Each structure stands twice: as structure tokens, then as C-alpha cells.
Amino acid sequence: MPNRLRVLAAGSVVALIAVLIPPTAQAQQDFAITADVPTLEELDSQIRLLVGTPAPDHVKAAQLEGGDRAVVVPKMVYRIGFFRPPRGNSQVTGPETHDGDRHTAVINASRQGSPTIQVVAEWRRIDGRWKLANKSLCNGISTLGLPIPCNFQ
Q1: Are 31 and 57 in contact (CB under 8 A)?
Q2: pTM listed for this prediction
Q3: Which residue has the higher pLDDT, 128 or 79?
Q4: In this predicted model, what pLDDT tens digit does every residue of 136-148 receive, in sequence order?
Q5: Residue 123 class from Cβ within 10 Å (0-12 exposed, 13-18 middle, 19+ buried)?
Q6: Residue 18 has pLDDT above 60, yes or no
Q7: Assigned domain for 149 exists
Q8: Would residue 150 count as lying in a domain?
Q9: Per-residue pLDDT reduced to its tens digit, 54-83
Q10: CATH code for the domain of 63
Q11: Would you say 132 and 65 are in contact if contact means Cβ atoms under 8 Å apart?
């Protein structure tokens, strides 16, 4: 019986490590939402990549309608650490709408000691990939009071 407990404990440690280790750089670089209709899980993964990881600028830019011009926003949110563990969290939920190359969902972001912020966000399908829309970044800048001009066009 003690050997069985050791195996179970070791398996739990491996599972915990797998959850805590961020995605590899290659997995981050290859991340793209290309389905006709994005799922909440895909959108949530994209937001976590943007604000919850130290992914390189070019990886984050590939997820944004504004590309390189807009990457300053998720970089600042990541550096501040508002919506990433251990102080915060984010989750994309419904309700959703879908109309051709536009999709909306709700980003719920929270940090310790503050109420949850809900932002209705829009994604646009550009060149076959779903990207967070500029207007969603501008809404986030305004909601968080970040000192960033909204000029990603």
C-alpha cells in the first residue's frame, strides 16, 4: 500500500507541474484560432497568452488586429500582473455573438482585492485567424485607466 501512495503522489506532482509550467515558446508561436467560429476555450487561451505569459512581442502581435502597434497593451497588462496568477485571473465567457468575421464574448478579469471587471470584447477574423479587435483593446485601456493612447489603426 505505501508504494501505491507514492505512485499516486508522484502522479499528482507531475500533474501540478504540468499545470504550472507555461506553454513552450514553440506552442505560443504556433497559437492561432482558425476555426470558422472560435470557441470560448480558444478565446480564453488567447487572452491568457496575451496577458498571462511573457510571450515575445511577435507572438502577441499575431493575436491582435493592431499587430505590432497594439502589442504595448498586453505587454503592460502582463507587467503589471493584474490578471495573472498569483494576484489575478481572467476567463472568457458568454454570452457570445457571431456574425461572419466578427465574434464577441465577455472577458472577466479579476485581481486580488478588486471587483471583477467585465469587458464585452470583439474578435475579428483577419487572413483566416481570429484576432482581438482594436476597439476591445481601447475599451480595456479605458476600463483599466492605462496611460496608453488608443491609436492602433
Answers
A1: no
A2: 0.79
A3: 128
A4: 999 988 888 888 8
A5: buried
A6: no
A7: no
A8: no
A9: 999 999 999 999 999 999 999 998 988 878
A10: 3.10.450
A11: yes
Say which residue the cell 478579469 belongs to. Answer: 109
Range of the domain at 82: 2-144
Q: How many alpha carbons fall within 13 Å on the CB side of residue 67? A: 5
Contacts 24+ apart (CB under 8 A), 81-88: 82/51, 82/109, 82/111, 82/144, 83/51, 83/52, 83/109, 83/110, 83/111, 84/48, 84/51, 84/52, 84/53, 85/52, 87/111, 87/112, 88/112
The DSSP H or E segment spanning 4 is: helix 2-20
Domains contained in the chain, number: 1
Q: Which of 71, 77, 69 is nearest to 107 (CA)?
A: 77
Q: Is residue 64 part of a domain?
A: yes
145 φ/ψ sector (left φ>0, alpha ψ -120 to 50, else beta)? left
Is residue 51 within 8 A of residue 92, CB to CB? The reply is: no
Cα–Cα distance, 82 to 114 (Å, whole number): 10
DSSP for 54-111? Answer: ---HHHHHTTBTTGGGTTHHHHHHHHHTTTSTTTEEEEEEEEEEEETTEEEEEEEEEE
